[in-house]
Amino acid sequence: MKKIVSLLAVMTMTFSLVGCGTDAAAQKEAENTEVVTEAEAPTDDGKTYNVGVIQLVQHPALDAATEGFKAALVEKLGDNVNVTIENASGDIPTCATIANTFVSDNVDLIMANATPALQAAQTATNSIPVVATSITDYASALDIDDWSGATGINVTGTSDLAPLDGQAEMLHEIFPDAKEVGIIYCSGEVNSLYQANTITTTLESFGYKVTHYTFADSADVGTVVQSACASSDVLYVPTDNVAANAAETINNIALTEKVPIIAGEEGICKGCGIATLSISYYDIGYAAGLMAYEILANGADPASMDIQYATEFTKEYNPKIAEELGITLPEDYVAIEME
Q1: Domain ranges, ordered by start, for the chain
Q2: What is the pLDDT averaged over residues 175-180?
Q3: Nearest-CA neighbor of 188 among 307, 63, 92?
Q4: Strongest mean pLDDT among 32-41, 160-169, 285-294
Q5: CA-based Rg of the chain, rounded to a whole angstrom?
Q6: Per-residue pLDDT tens for 89-141?
Q7: pLDDT, position 17
Q8: Could you say which of 3.40.50.2000, 3.20.20.80, 3.40.50.2300, 3.40.50.720 is the CATH number of the domain covering 23-162+279-312?
Q9: Which residues fall within 8 angstroms of residue 236, CB to CB, at 6 or more apart?
């Protein structure tokens, strides 16, 4: 038996939001940022802008970010913007194909939704502006060592980084008597490695023994999760696209083994987690859309636009899994609406 019984923000530059490079700095600066969710009347300068969206995979979180991005552009530009959305269905080479097609079509701007989409767009062009979203750590994704808050190249955007120390505190709040914490993520996702390494430090400060369990792709998920469950009291799954797609597989194993999961975002929590400290992907997508508007309509330079971070977070829980595991969450947790 297990040892456990009970367990986005628009821009603050001239036009709002806030940037930084490390997890702690991002959170500190974001505290002084006001979330803006309304747009001004559409601008009509007589020009029609063509924007291409590369979305890595169909998933509730990424879908919401794309929806928010498009909504912001349409609210600001009305009929003067054409947004073409292409989904790579989780295939990284397809991201490159989509990016190269947008470059050939000479679009005015590319939106990249998720890290592989950003990397594909950045490889495909150094002149067309790229606004990304759903990126946890831009420095890792773009291999930038001297991070200053802006990329210095034709890329800017918003991050989906929730406060990792807050997620660790959540795990400790719900499972104070746990001893072993397993972190499961895809070894090919640099953002997942960043999250895993960052949260490990905080978890260890609470006295937990932390072990990382990595899978190369979806084919390895079942075996890795089975191994993690055998040696862990609680699992943590960071914001990870492969894990998000494999949430059902993860849940089938973890629930059978009675091992609860703290998730990095709401979508994963819906599929296999018991609780999460969540951001709104629609909001970070919307903020990215407003950044794109500033670039297109007002000539802002993406190279000098600080990466923006969510400022509002919600403690959420999965009522179905909580009930199945017999775990009662604190009163300040909000139940996720299950489909």
Answers
A1: 23-162+279-312, 164-278+315-335
A2: 97
A3: 92
A4: 285-294
A5: 20
A6: 989 999 999 999 999 999 999 999 999 999 999 999 999 999 999 998 999 99
A7: 33
A8: 3.40.50.2300
A9: 167, 171, 181, 182, 183, 184, 199, 203, 261, 262, 263, 264
**What tokens appear for 191 in the block?**
């953002």
Q: Are the CB atoms for 19 and 46 separated by under 8 Å?
A: no
Q: How many residues does the chain have?
A: 339
- pTM score of the predicted model: 0.76
Decide: residue 220, CB within 10 A, 0-12 exposed, 13-18 middle, 19+ buried.
middle
**Nearest one of 277, 265, 274, 262 to 240, comparing CA atoms:** 265
For the chain, what is the mean pLDDT? Answer: 88
Sequence-separated (6 or more) residues with CB below 8 Å from residue 98: 52, 54, 86, 88, 117, 120
Residues 86 and 205: their CA atoms lie apart, in Å, by 43
Edge to edge, the sheet with strand 81-87 lists: 81-87, 49-55, 109-113, 130-135, 155-159, 308-309
CATH of domain 164-278+315-335: 3.40.50.2300
Whether residue 19 contacts residue 149, with contact meaning beta carbons closer than 8 Å, is answered with yes
CA nearest 297: which of 65, 109, 112?
A: 109
Q: Which residue, among 137, 133, 139, has the nearest Cα to 158 in the 3D structure?
A: 133
* 3-class secondary-structure state, position 326: coil
Measured between alpha carbons, how far is 261 from 259 in angstroms, rounded to an integer? Answer: 7
